[in-house]
């Protein structure tokens, strides 16, 4: 993708949501790495820790003290220009942790925002179903889901102890997602909306997976 520089005075904030409560899960590592790409593009970044929010289940969001927690969570999302969603693939879908968090939000938090997608799976096939379903959710919330997305397979060996991707192509794809989210968020905030549309339509549509295809027997 050809990057057109935007005025430096257009500040953007990109946040990440990881659909795993484990502190050192592969999903969190992947989302952190994608956020690093957004930071390289000039955005202020933050991983919003769902474990720290301790969100109530949908249906109890109006009860205290959960109501205050939900409002703080929503406010933090509304303050973002871009959002990176990451989830492990569980039973052919994304995690219940992320599903509940998204159920507690609406178009007020997502409409017009740039959204990047990261899926993580234990097997070689990757998290294609997770990415497909998250893209549907993003569209239903009227968000702009960026063309590049990442499916990380073999999650138990995908990252080293420092949280770095073992395979360079994984790291490149993750940072590419973050850069696209930050870049298009800046274009969308500036006055050059025609440039935004031109670059959006010309952005490469990458394949869902980064893992080799299984051998056909």
Give an account of the 3D structure.
By secondary structure, this protein is of the alpha/beta class. It has a single domain, classed as Flavodoxin domain (Rossmann fold, 3-Layer(aba) Sandwich). Helices cover 41% and strands 16% of the residues. The chain has 8 helices and 5 strands. Strands 2-1-3-4-5 form a 5-stranded parallel sheet, sandwiched between helices. The longest helix is centred in the last third of the chain and has 22 residues, at 168-189.
Low-confidence stretches: 1-7, 208-217
CATH architecture: 3-Layer(aba) Sandwich
What's the overall geometry?
Answer: globular
Portion in helices? 40-55%
Portion of residues in beta strands equals: 15-25%
Sketch the major β-sheet: 5 strands, parallel
H/E element order: EHEHHEHHEHEHH
- Computed structural class: alpha/beta
Question: Averaging pLDDT over every residue, what do you get?
Answer: 88
Radius of gyration: 17 Å
Distance between the termini: 37 Å
CATH superfamily: Flavodoxin domain
Number of strands: 5
Tally of individual domains: 1
Briefly, what is this?
This protein has 217 residues and is an alpha/beta fold. It has helices at 26-40, 50-53, 66-78, 96-103, 107-110, 128-140, 168-189, 193-202, and strands spanning 13-18, 44-48, 82-88, 114-120, 144-152.
Key words describing this protein structure:
217 residues, alpha/beta, Rossmann fold, 5-stranded parallel β-sheet, 5 strands, globular, disordered N terminus, disordered C terminus
Topology:
Layout: E1 13-18, H1 26-40, E2 44-48, H2 50-53, H3 66-78, E3 82-88, H4 96-103, H5 107-110, E4 114-120, H6 128-140, E5 144-152, H7 168-189, H8 193-202
Parallel strand pairs: 1-2, 1-3, 3-4, 4-5
Helix pairs in contact: 1-7, 7-8
